[in-house]
Design brief:
By secondary structure, this protein is an alpha/beta fold. 31% of the residues lie in helices and 19% in strands. Among the domains are: 108 residues, Methylthiotransferase, N-terminal domain (Rossmann fold, 3-Layer(aba) Sandwich); 60 residues, Nucleic acid-binding proteins (OB fold (Dihydrolipoamide Acetyltransferase, E2P), Beta Barrel). Catalyzes the methylthiolation of an aspartic acid residue of ribosomal protein uS12.
Length: 456
């Protein structure tokens, strides 16, 4: 049983879970998946294709004939982490194929690690397969190598990320994701719905909808059936009977049309919205819409329709030029917005980002001090909101059952980035994926504790 740490990086996916046995003589590939849930979905797709060709999947370096490292390039610290993972894979295994966001800069990788076998960019599945074939030829056994009906999943069986689009049309100065992953390309509605139906048929109880800009889904189509296709998709996903959680939703005006679906219970009353800051001048330097006051009006309107809505967001402190006044505006905005779940980055230069050239970069010690103050306020808000849940009865989904407790999540909690609810009595009969009612009897800064409500 582990409590949710307050400084968890909000850009990370859950740790991949590998549970596929290997047959004798089967060519086997290891996978290191770094970065966000979108990268985790890419890893799942690569491994699904490899499994279909008869490859086994190894959870460690020593059992693999070669290793794929799916990298992250979102921050310079993430790039360093990716280079470190590549170096570790080379040291432990020696045969390494690199893909993912950092793969968009092959010279950066080969300059540090010239012995890698191949480098491919993000979502270049065919090139990854070609590199694997060259390093480890396939040797399928059609009588043994059966692909799971839902493909290879790197998350627990009861929840799954559902990536609905790739790329982004925003031009935020601190971000190079559009340079690495390109402009917005939305998957066809039918393809997304078919994948979701298949996942639910195979036992998935929660669908986590992800993209770079979820609310823009389908707006890149020349001929689209409706002005905002995300509304049709949300409605159809909600009809499947699983929990549907919306991530990375920009607060466009049409987002308000999602809120009644939440109030009706069609999709979860949860929005993950990357506000990033609140001061108009900071937002302007970020090249983001400078409408913090209107955002507060939107939040109030959402809560009027769906009082139980949970709002999660991420913010950047210490952005170039951020004054103490601008930072205080952010703290005041957070006080008024009363967001339920908050993650925060200290600004970092990223090679290729336009924000690098901005004047008045903030010293590290001031960034750290502002991060501490920001998280202290966010923690106090979280603690008060959770304390208000004591004595209420809520639904939770079970993630893990151990001897001392069952680790669960409420509708207000996404995997890894939000809190947990722990049941430490009468939990022995529970299984991962169960959705049960719990009476909350204790609250902490980020987590809850409760007891099962017995069915009549």
């Amino acid at each position: 049983m582990s409590q949710n740490p307050p400084n968890l990086r909000p850009d990370l996916a859950p740790a991949p879970k590998f549970d596929t046995p290997r047959r004798d003589g089967q060519p086997t590939i290891g996978m290191v998946s770094l970065g966000c849930p979108k990268a985790l979905v890419d890893s799942e797709r690569i491994l699904t294709r490899l499994r279909a060709e008869g490859y086994g999947i190894s959870p460690d370096y020593s059992g693999a004939d070669a290793v794929i490292v799916n990298t992250c390039g979102f921050l310079d610290s993430a790039k360093a982490e990716s280079l470190e993972a590549i170096g570790e894979a080379l040291a432990e295994n020696g045969r390494v194929i690199v893909t993912g966001c950092l793969g968009a800069e092959p010279e950066y990788i080969t300059g540090a690690h010239p012995k890698v076998l191949a480098v491919t960019g993000p979502h270049q599945y065919e090139q990854v397969l070609d590199a694997v074939h060259a390093a480890v030829p396939p040797d399928p056994d059609p009588f043994v190598d059966l692909l799971p009906a839902s493909g290879v999943k790197l998350t627990p069986r009861h929840y799954s990320y559902l990536k609905i689009s790739e790329g982004c049309n925003h031009k935020c100065k601190f971000c190079i994701i559009p340079d690495m992953r390109g402009k917005l390309v939305s998957r066809p509605h039918k393809a997304v719905l078919r994948e979701a139906e298949k996942l639910v048929e195979n036992g998935v109880r929660e669908l986590l909808v992800i993209s770079q800009d979820t609310s823009a889904y389908g707006t890149d189509w020349a001929d689209r059936p409706s002005k905002f296709p995300i509304l049709d998709l949300a409605r159809d996903l909600g009809a499947l009977g699983a929990w549907v959680r919306m991530h990375y939703v920009y607060p466009y005006p049409h987002v308000r049309d999602l809120i009644p679906m939440m109030a009706e219970g069609l999709i979860l009353p949860y929005l993950d919205i990357p506000f990033q800051h609140a001061h108009p001048e900071t937002l302007k330097r970020m090249a983001r819409p400078a409408a913090a006051a209107k955002t507060l009006d939107e939040i109030a309107a959402w809560r009027a329709v769906c009082p139980d809505i949970t709002l999660r967001s991420t913010f950047i402190v210490g952005y170039p030029g951020e004054t103490e006044e601008e930072f205080q505006t952010l703290l005041d905005w957070l006080d008024e917005a009363q967001l339920d779940r908050v993650g925060c980055f200290q600004y970092e230069n990223v090679d290729g980002a336009r924000s690098n050239a901005l004047p008045d970069h903030i010293p590290d010690e001031i960034k750290q001090e502002r991060w501490d103050r920001f998280m202290q306020k966010a923690q106090a808000i979280s603690e008060a909101k959770l304390d208000a849940k004591v004595g209420t009865t809520i639904q939770v989904i079970v993630d893990e059952v151990e001897d001392d407790a069952a680790t669960c999540r409420t509708m207000a909690d996404a995997p890894e980035i939000d809190g947990n609810l722990f049941i430490d009595a009468d939990h022995e009969t529970l299984s991962p994926g169960d959705i049960v009612s719990v009476e909350v009897d204790e609250a902490g800064e980020y987590d809850l504790w409760g007891r099962l409500v017995k069915a009549d």
